[in-house]
Design goal:
Elements: H1 2-50, E1 62-64, E2 79-83, E3 93-97, E4 100-104, H2 113-121, H3 127-142
Antiparallel strand pairs: 1-2, 2-3, 3-4
Length: about 140
Amino acid sequence: MKNKKQIIRIVATIIAFLALMLVTLVPKFKEKNDRLTRINELKEIAILLDLNTKWPEKDTPYAYIGAGLTATPEMKDYPRIIEKPWQVKRPYYIALFSGQVTSSPGMPEVANCEEFIKYLSKGQSSPTWDKILENARAVDKACGK
């Protein structure tokens, strides 16, 4: 009888431990899955843009800040699409550079697309960065940010 009670306690402890692990790990897996889903969505949008398909209208969580720029090999260093920062669970922000998606966990908190672009440009100024910054400001204005 004593052995049976001991076995039941051990099994109950193991089950409780596994339940606790499950409760703590599921949100982390969900967050990573959400991020991977957003990255894949951006890759699909990039393919549509390369095929000259119309950009999705408002209500998208992404900002097409590369509008009006020609897709050239030099554009690989510039973001084309970013997530609208106010729709992102911090601290992860995602940007699409010429077919390459970047997720930056170490980025400081930003409130709008303009701040996001200023962070990505690292203070550089060029006609391309100026156009991207202008597009970011237009997205912020259209979204009331």
